[in-house]
Design a protein that fits this description.
alpha+beta, 6-stranded antiparallel β-sheet
């Protein structure tokens, strides 16, 4: 690069031109322009650089721009200097989708406020209501913007207003950028113009913007220079002069290269693009309002044109970000907003025409949300540019493109057009940006008030809403099921909720003060007008009579009536908040009937769908009902619908309203008294569900007061309690289920207060099985008594299951508290009676419909059905009783209580069927409840079948045989008629049967003589069986019956006769004298078709509501006359209870009736006497007899049970006394354990013919490799310093130590000894762990079972059959192998007498010299081989082979290491020791019965014996001789002094296991104790040798002197700790340089006897623990249970028979105890120790460093997972944007290993290792296939186990004990210690496979 300062340019030699500058280079030209400013020369250079003929993607152009701007500096220096003048008050950081941002609701003014992570961390938001979220559409940081957030939330860098802090850059610094910026932006505009032709954009739209990437990146880099540079850029973009002076048409320069032509073509493209941009059709008067609505757009600045191209190119991300980067400049923000609004009306066409609308909508909102969140700016755009008009016009225009004909009522007469929900605009939510922006601007109160104040705007708005009114009509399928279920209902509900409900609530939020009541009325007027236009367009009936008779909507249903909901909510808010009178808001005339008709039909359809009547339309109908009632949206859907219907009930005629409801629910005909009444709308099985639905609807109208002015706190309690009663829920579930616009949602403090009031919290809990519970809320016990409302639960339950669940929970509560003790049935729903007064004054009470004749008539008909029809459900009964109770308890306003009632006067003798308004003379309950309806005139149609129908004859005769079953009690049974008159009604059974011959008068028994009405006890009461019939044939005489006849109660109180002989041909009274047979007229010829006649019949009834209630009480109580009327005193003190069954509530209602008025009480008495005249006198005797019979039955049952128990006891005693000695001796002789096969169920011993096996799971493990020497756990790095510390500590874990020791031993002894590998174990990394569920199985049964799993029927299972996996047939735990259960080598071995100590040493040596491999048949040998092969294959190949030169030693070491790994892991599961075993390891350690160690040792021992003989038969005998100082046998003598690894360098545990595996099993306990003794001696001396290297030189000299004195006084014995230590030091000191003082070995701080004793004990404990656990499993001798750490060493020494029990276990006594536990096979133990030391010294003389390193010991602590920080944000902020160390990129799914802290790219292809993705490969390296990861972006733990993986859960919970998977809620998360402890325990116990069932095959793709 040429330095211009050192190069002199002579102008006379070469004139400086643009070409010369270009030749000189970027830096020289920049310095020249800085030193000698020349605008002409600069522009000439820019003309060449920014020529449109050059590709804009040329990186050289951008580099020239950077250098020219930097002038005499480098671009980096220039950028840094410009940033130093940053004094921006606002952050303005821009992000795109999937960026992590924060939102603080405490600090926010606008709901769209967001903060970047840096500003949030720098601000003070402690204790605030904030959350972290993933930005879906992108955004910008609002820190420093006082219009969007409160200044208290600003960070420390933004929001400063101090003028002194505002300093600008010098003009010289920004001179060149200011000159260049217009040219830079003009080049961008020219490029966009050139490529704007339609053919280019359609084919290469993506490539057009891709070529701009470098250029736009350059502009964004300029924006990142902050305030100073942004000022230059915004000045160029917003200057009208610069845009006007930018002459892109008339180019005066030379056009040799065609540049002018290209620029003119670009301009023509621009003009064509502007003119071709679609514009919605707008009325001329609206176009004159604003430039935004004009047909053509006039651009005045570069920014205007740039925004235009942003629209044209569908909001490319980088261009959008560039425009947003400059928003902190307030002047630019206003200009940008203006330009955006100018083009806003065109946005609907762009969204509609887009081929990929989803990302486009996000990018549009990315811009608009930043502009319209500012209230002042939004209001200015509304006033100046009519922003609201542009938005509504755009919405209306977009929706008008997809209109179709409405399908409501008669489509031929319907002219209404609705939106098509199947169009892509609806399905792809293309309207979402528009409605989102509208809701955003309406959140500003001035804008919302301006919206409501404009009549033209409101008219357009309701015209738009009318397109949603009645959309998505469902037509009920009656024949075949729909071929394909549509999913368009999602689009319909989304459109209404987003396009209608959201703006509605935004408006109503600001219409709360009385001063805005006029605006509310204006809004309501427009809603009424729109509704009236809609009614006219769809051609619906508009008078009451037409509405009642109209059936055009019976098979049609729509859930979308937004205009109705506007009306309902406007009225509700106006009455509740603004104090407007209801009368001022309601419509006049018949409009209300028309208004509620469609809402009523919606409710009917809802219940029809719930009843299964729309099943042929598919499950999508249930989906619509669930969405309609979904709790989160109910305030915009079902609640306003219910409220508008309530308004109808409040204001309309009650009789007409109820009649309309009953007819629209199609239950009107069901109420008929006609015997042959049929329902023309419902099938038989649909009638009862629809009756229940109708009553539920009425109860909902009467009880629910959600929109009727219920106080907000009470409503919040009810909503939360309702959700909790349906099921326990988490905090977030409750928040999601609360109504969206309810007060608790907008007031978190109220929500938390109410939640604390009504709920009890259960914190998160974990179980040892792996199950985890989140923090959950349940209802307090008092909620069931005070707040549980089944009606409200039914309203909020999306499925019937939720309602039933609440009833089940209620039943459990009342039973647990003793409130309900009936064990036979369940209690009725405890319906809550609403308060007596409406929530708001001067509001009509909706319960007025309870006091009308239609209601009482309907209740009379329903009760009649309840009494007589067994198909009527108890739910119908409970609802009917509840409605009657409300009618009884609600006082009538017109009733004074002084009226005189005469029920026997002025009452009609004949009541016409279903004319309920004429049945009663007054609406007063006192009269109507006791009104007896004597006769009901019904019109029947009789159908006569063909006389040749023999099949009908047989069916008819069969149906006439009506038989009463034999009763159980003597007092209830068949009744008998006497010739004197009718039978007493008291004897009627309460469970009456319906007439079996419906449609006739068959079975009605006329009296033998006229009945005296006065004798019946009621005015006008007639005999229940009397029927007066009138027909065209004339009067019919009465048929006389004499003699006793059996009676059966039928519908309506009729009695059906049956002769005692069993067959009686019954004829119709109407046809008896006419000579007509039962089958029809006599003249009907054979073969003729059926005919019918219509007759008017008077059906005798004779019941009142009170009498039917008494009968119902008896029916439900299963006894006659069951109700007992309370006395006057009891009535006065009566207290109601909402807990009880049917008789309780019916009786309580009767008590309310009796208490209401004395006339009603007297009527109850009289009715009882009439129905059960003998009840009073017979009551006591019958009751006593019944109790006596029951008492006798109980006594008889008890006697039988006692007799049976006596006989059983005698049999057992006889069995036990029969030959006891023979049985006991037989058991002793067998002495063979029997096993139970879980397949065949047989129990037997494991024999050679049919051996047993133990099902096990073999898995690779590296748990031991993660042990460390320090007790403090490793920390997960959260900064660079902790990351370095972790890497340093990981280099010193046990895996690294074992690898280093292996390498040292190999390099030292590999060439001199072939057995060096046997001196250590290598199972630390890649070892094998064996676990079992404890179940046994025959080996042949196992083979057949595994073979059955490979059948086609068993495919698709989550087990790998190719790897031998299977589920335990009994417990279903995962297994993959079976260990054969072998009989002992000799049955008498366990019974051998104990060896003496000397004999034991000799016996062991003899056995080691004569190793014999057991001989097994194929039934045993093959499973052993298969098991060993499975252990080899379960490990990964990289962990199998260590030294290829010695394969036998490798395998023998592997066999030994498997046993070692098993023992060590069990010790780890015991928390690293035996202290408090019962408490610390209860959840981790399996019982001895479930241990697999003994079968495992048998398999390993078989292979160890073979390998020992194959490898070196003399190795173990020589080792044993050298270990004990014994004389070697002849067989091993020649190899005694061969070079080998010194004993002081061999692992005692490895030697123990190898010896035990080689010796025959079972090994006598005395021999085992001898082996442990010998190896303990070695372990103690090894500990002394290792410890001496950590003792200072002076202390070593002291130990030598003390040792010499001690040995001298003890006769050469090692009688003290100092003697042993001093002897080792004395011997080691003989090698010069072995002890060094250079700091290689860390010296002990405490070298006192106490400190040295503690060190020696700690170094001996690992061996003692493993030996003790091995002894436990070999001999089933319980381990000791020391209660403190000080007691563990003495307890283990005593358990292993190394020492006597210590009287006092203290640390000071450990030194003497450990050394006294050494016992020798020879007299001179010191000589043995000296021999060991001399072996070691021979090595030390050759290499002191090797000897020093190999003799060193490490004390390993418990393996643990990395310790996590308390707050999750600490992890997230460090790892979210951290680069991967392997690929150098930021992972898309950053995931951290919790074992070692490595960051991996989950599911990333960038870091594959062979065929494995990084996480899978790391799980092999770090955990031998088992690894635990924390997914940073989701807070979930991922467990990889071999070829499977699962989402385990999260160890981070929020303050409510909830997980936040995927961080969707973004609440602050905190570490749950209990869960993390559970995760660690599952890892240590290798229990993942059998605790988490949701495993997937990862296919190496993680």
């Amino acid at each position: 690069m040429v330095d211009p300062k050192k190069t002199a340019v002579k102008e006379d030699e070469e004139p400086v031109t643009a070409e010369a500058l270009e030749r000189r280079g970027k830096r020289w030209a920049a310095n020249f322009l800085k030193r000698e400013p020349s605008p002409r020369l600069l522009h000439q250079l820019l003309d060449k650089l920014l020529s449109p003929l050059k590709p804009i993607s040329d990186e050289n152009i951008v580099e020239w721009m950077r250098w020219i701007m930097a002038a005499d500096k480098t671009p980096e220096e220039f950028a840094e200097q410009v940033r130093s003048y940053d004094n921006a008050q606002r952050c303005g950081m821009v992000w795109t989708a999937n960026f992590v941002a924060y939102r603080c609701r405490t600090c926010g003014i606008s709901p769209c406020m967001s903060l970047c992570a840096e500003c949030f961390q720098r601000g003070n938001h402690d204790g605030h209501d904030y959350n972290m979220f993933w930005s879906q559409a992108g955004g910008a940081c609002d820190c420093g913007d006082p219009y969007v957030m409160k200044p208290s939330g600003f960070c420390s860098l933004h929001g400063q207003t101090d003028p002194a802090a505002q300093r600008g850059p010098p003009d010289s610094l920004m001179q060149l950028p200011r000159e260049m910026m217009p040219r830079i932006f003009s080049r961008l505009l020219v490029y966009l113009r050139i490529n704007s032709r339609a053919e280019n954009m359609e084919s290469n739209d993506a490539s057009i913007m891709q070529r701009l990437d470098g250029y736009l990146n350059f502009l964004q880099d300029l924006c990142n220079m902050r305030t100073a540079m942004r000022a230059c850029m915004t000045e160029a973009l917003t200057s009208r002069e610069l845009y006007r002076d930018m002459d892109l048409v008339q180019i005066t320069q030379d056009d040799a290269h065609g540049e002018t032509k290209l620029l003119r073509e670009a301009y023509r493209n621009y003009v064509e693009a502007v003119n071709s941009m679609p514009n919605p059709d707008v009325a001329p008067e609206l176009r004159a309002l604003s430039p935004a609505l004009q047909e053509n757009i006039q651009h005045e600045t570069m920014l205007d044109e740039l925004v235009f191209w942003t629209y044209k190119y569908e909001f490319p991300t980088k261009l959008v970000c560039l425009l947003l980067y400059m928003l902190p400049d307030q002047r630019y923000k206003e200009c940008f907003t203006r330009a955006f609004v100018l083009h806003y009306a065109r946005i609907s066409q762009m969204l509609s025409a887009s081929t990929d609308p989803d990302p486009l909508t996000n990018r549009v909102v990315h811009v608009s949300v930043q502009l319209f969140s500012n209230e002042q700016l939004a209001l200015r755009m509304t006033e100046e540019l009519h922003l609201l008009h542009a938005m509504v016009i755009s919405l209306k225009h977009m929706t008008s493109q997809i209109l179709i004909n409405s399908q409501l009522h008669d489509p031929a007469r319907n002219t209404h057009k609705v939106a098509s929900c199947g169009d892509k605009i609806m399905k792809n939510h293309c309207y979402w940006p528009l409605v989102s922006d509208l809701s955003n601007v309406l959140s500003h109160k001035p804008v919302a008030l301006a919206f409501v104040s404009d009549d033209g705007l409101l008219q357009m708005w309701f015209s738009y809403l009318s397109m949603y009114q009645g959309m998505h009509v469902n037509i009920r399928q009656l024949d075949a099921h729909v071929d394909m279920e549509p999913s368009t209902y999602y689009a319909a509900f989304s459109a209404e909720l987003e396009g209608s409900a959201a703006p509605m609530w935004a408006l109503l939020t600001h219409l709360k003060e009385p001063g805005t009541a006029d605006l509310t009325k204006r809004l309501l007027r427009h809603a009424y007008a729109a509704l009236q236009q809609w009614h006219d367009a769809i051609g619906c009936p508009q008078t009451y009579e037409e509405i009642v008779e109209d059936d055009s909507m019976d098979l049609r249903c729509t859930f979308h009536l937004p205009l109705h909901r506007y009306v309902a909510l406007i009225i509700s808010e106006a009455v509740k908040r603004q104090g407007v009178s209801l009368q001022e808001l309601l419509p006049t005339g018949n409009t209300m009937f028309t208004l509620i008709s469609h809402l009523l039909k919606l409710q009917v359809s809802f219940h029809e769908i719930s009843a299964g009547m729309w099943v042929r339309n598919g499950n999508q109908m249930k989906g619509q009902t669930m969405t309609y009632t979904q709790c989160h949206f109910c305030c915009s859907m079902v609640d306003p619908d219910i409220y508008l219907l309530q308004l109808g009930a409040m204001t309309l005629d009650p009789d007409k309203f109820l009649t309309l409801v009953l007819k629209k629910f199609h239950v009107w005909e069901w109420l008929s008294f006609a015997p042959n009444a049929t329902n023309s709308h419902l099938e038989a099985d649909q009638e009862i569900p629809m009756v229940e639905a109708c009553l539920t609807f009425l109860a909902t109208l009467l009880c629910v007061r959600t929109c009727a002015g219920m106080p907000e706190d009470e409503l919040a309690k009810l909503e939360i309690a309702t959700q909790l009663c349906m099921g326990d829920k988490t905090h977030s579930q409750l928040m999601d289920l609360l109504p969206e616009k309810s007060e608790p949602m907008s007031n978190p403090a109220l929500f938390e207060a109410v939640l604390a009031h009504v709920s009890r919290y259960r914190g998160p809990a974990s179980e040892a099985s792996g199950n985890m519970q989140q923090g959950i809320y349940g209802p307090k016990v008092e909620v069931w008594d005070t707040l549980y409302d089944p009606i409200y639960v039914f309203l909020r339950a999306m499925v019937r299951k939720e309602f039933q669940g609440s009833m089940d929970r209620f039943t459990a509560y009342v039973k647990s508290t003793g409130q309900y003790t009936d064990s036979k049935g369940s209690p009725w729903p405890p319906y809550k009676v609403p308060p007596s007064q409406p929530p708001l004054p001067d509001i009509p009470d909706v319960r007025r419909i309870l006091h009308c004749n239609t209601f009482y008539g309907a209740m009379l008909a329903i009760l009649r059905r309840c009494v007589s029809d067994p198909l009527v459900s108890e739910q119908v009964m409970s609802l009917a009783i509840f409605l009657l109770e409300m009618a009884t308890r609600k006082p009538e306003k017109e009733f004074t209580g002084q009226e005189v009632f005469r029920t026997d006067m002025d009452q009609p003798d004949e009541c016409e069927d279903l004319q309920f308004t004429e049945w009663f003379r007054t609406p007063w309950s006192v009269d109507n409840l006791r009104r007896v309806v004597d006769n009901v005139t019904v019109v029947t149609e009789r159908v006569y079948p063909s006389s040749s129908s023999s099949e009908s004859d047989e069916m008819l005769m069969e149906s006439m045989e009506m038989v009463v079953e034999e009763p159980e009690d003597e007092d209830v049974g068949v009744l008998h008629l006497s010739p004197d008159g009718p039978p007493p009604l008291a004897a009627l059974q309460t469970q009456q049967r319906p007439a079996l011959l419906a449609g006739t008068e068959v079975g009605r028994l006329p009296p033998s003589e006229p009945m005296d009405q006065s004798a019946a006890g009621g005015s006008g009461a007639a005999h229940a069986g009397a029927v007066a019939s009138t027909s065209a044939a004339g009067a019919v005489g009465e048929q006389q019956y004499s003699g006793p006849l059996a009676l059966v109660a039928c519908s309506g109180g009729e009695l059906v006769p049956r002769s005692q002989q069993g067959d009686l041909l019954l004829r119709s009274p109407a046809s008896h004298d006419m000579g007509e047979s039962w089958y029809g007229p006599r003249g009907l010829q054979d073969g003729a078709g059926p005919s019918s006649t219509t007759t008017t019949t008077s059906v005798a009834f004779g019941d009142s509501i009170v009498s039917l209630l008494l009968k119902l009480h008896s029916k439900l109580s299963d006894q006659p006359d069951s109700y007992r009327l309370p006395s006057d005193e009891q009535l006065a003190n009566f207290k109601e209870s909402r807990v009880g069954n049917g008789p309780h509530f019916v009786g309580q209602l009767l008590t309310f009736i009796a208490k209401k008025d004395p006339l009603l009480k007297q009527h109850i008495k009289e009715t009882r006497n009439r129905l059960w005249p003998r009840a009073t006198e017979d009551e006591s005797p019958r009751s006593e007899d019944r109790e006596a019979r029951r008492r006798m039955a109980r006594e008889r049952q008890q006697r039988l049970m006692r007799q049976f128990a006596n006989r059983q006891r005698q049999f057992q005693e006889q069995l036990e006394t029969e030959e006891p000695d023979v049985a006991a001796s037989s058991r002793r002789e067998r002495n063979v354990r029997e096993y139970d096969c879980v397949i065949c169920g047989q129990s037997s011993a494991s024999t050679a013919e049919r051996p047993f096996g133990l099902v096990v799971l073999l898995q690779a493990t590296s748990v031991l490799s993660h042990q460390h020497t320090r007790t403090e756990p490793l920390q997960l790095p959260v900064d660079e310093e902790s990351s370095q510390q972790l890497r340093s500590r990981l280099r010193h874990n046990r895996a690294a130590f074992v690898d280093s020791r292996h390498d040292r031993l190999a390099s030292t002894f590999e060439n001199v000894s072939k057995n060096w590998l046997l001196s250590m174990n290598l199972g630390v990394t890649g070892g094998v762990h064996v676990q079992t569920c404890g179940h046994n199985i025959h080996l042949d049964c196992h083979r057949m079972y595994v073979r059955s799993l490979t059948t086609p029927d068993a495919r698709g299972q989550s087990i790998n059959l190719n790897k031998g996996e299977y589920s335990c047939p009994l417990c279903r735990q995962l297994c993959n192998h079976v260990l054969p259960l072998l009989e002992p080598d000799g049955a008498a071995a366990a019974l051998q007498p104990a060896y003496s100590r000397a004999e034991a040493y000799t016996a062991i040596g003899r056995l080691l010299n004569d190793v014999q491999v057991p001989e097994y048949n194929n039934n045993f040998a093959e499973p052993i081989s298969h098991a060993m092969d499975g252990m080899t294959r379960v490990t990964f190949p990289k962990f199998r082979i260590t030294t290829p030169q010695t394969p036998a030693q490798n395998i023998l070491n592997f066999v030994n290491s498997v046993a070692r790994t098993h023992l060590e892991i069990e010790v780890i599961q015991r928390d690293g020791g035996l202290t408090n075993t019962a408490d610390a390891a209860a959840q981790l350690v399996p019982s001895v019965k479930r241990s697999s160690l003994v079968p495992l040792l048998t398999v390993l021992g078989y292979n160890a014996k073979m390998l020992s003989l194959e490898n070196d038969p003399t190795y173990l005998p020589v080792m044993w001789s050298r270990l004990n100082g014994l004389i070697p046998s002849a067989r091993s003598e020649i190899t005694l002094f061969q070079p080998d690894v010194p004993l002081l360098l061999r692992d005692p545990t490895s030697m123990l296991l190898l010896t035990v595996l080689t010796l025959p099993m079972p090994l006598p306990v005395s021999l085992y104790a001898c082996i442990v003794q010998a190896l303990y001696n070695l372990a103690y001396v090894q500990a002394c040798a290792a410890l001496t290297f950590h003792v200072p030189h002076a202390r070593r000299r002291e130990l030598v002197r003390a040792s010499q004195l001690s040995r001298a006084s003890a006769g050469g014995r090692l009688s003290s700790m100092e003697a042993a230590l001093g002897l080792v030091v004395e011997l080691f000191s003989g090698v010069a340089g072995l002890y060094t003082e250079d700091g290689v070995d860390e010296l002990l701080a405490d070298t006192s006897p106490h400190g040295l004793a503690e060190q020696l004990a700690a170094r001996c404990l690992p061996f003692l623990r493993l030996a003790a656990v091995l002894r436990l499993h070999l001999y089933q001798q319980p381990l000791p249970d020391p209660r403190s750490a000080d007691q563990e060493l003495p307890a283990l020494l005593h358990y292993l028979q190394l020492a006597e029990p210590a009287p006092v276990a203290t640390p000071d006594a450990h030194g003497a105890l450990t050394v006294s536990s050494m016992r020798w096979a020879v007299a001179d133990g010191e000589a043995v120790v000296q021999a060991w030391c001399h072996e070691f010294l021979s090595l030390a003389q050759h290499s002191q460093s090797t000897a020093r390193e190999l003799v060193r010991q490490q004390r390993w602590c418990q393996p643990q997972l990395l310790r996590l920080p308390r707050e999750y944000k600490t992890i997230f902020l460090f790892y979210h944007r951290r680069q991967c160390t392997r690929c150098g990129l930021m992972p898309k799914d950053p995931t951290v290993c919790l074992l070692c802290g490595t960051l991996v790219c989950l599911r990333g292809q960038c870091c594959k290792v062979g065929t494995q993705n990084e996480a899978v490969a790391h799980s092999v390296d770090c955990g031998s296939g088992t690894c635990i990861f924390l997914a940073v972006n989701s807070s979930t733990v991922i467990v990889i186990r071999g070829r499977r993986a699962c989402l385990w859960g999260s160890v981070y919970l929020d303050s409510f004990g909830e997980e936040d998977r995927e961080l969707k809620r973004g609440r602050p998360l905190f570490l749950c210690e209990e869960r993390y402890r559970l995760l660690q325990n599952l890892w240590l116990s290798h229990a993942f496979d059998n605790t988490r069932r949701r495993w997937i095959w990862h296919k190496e793709m993680l």
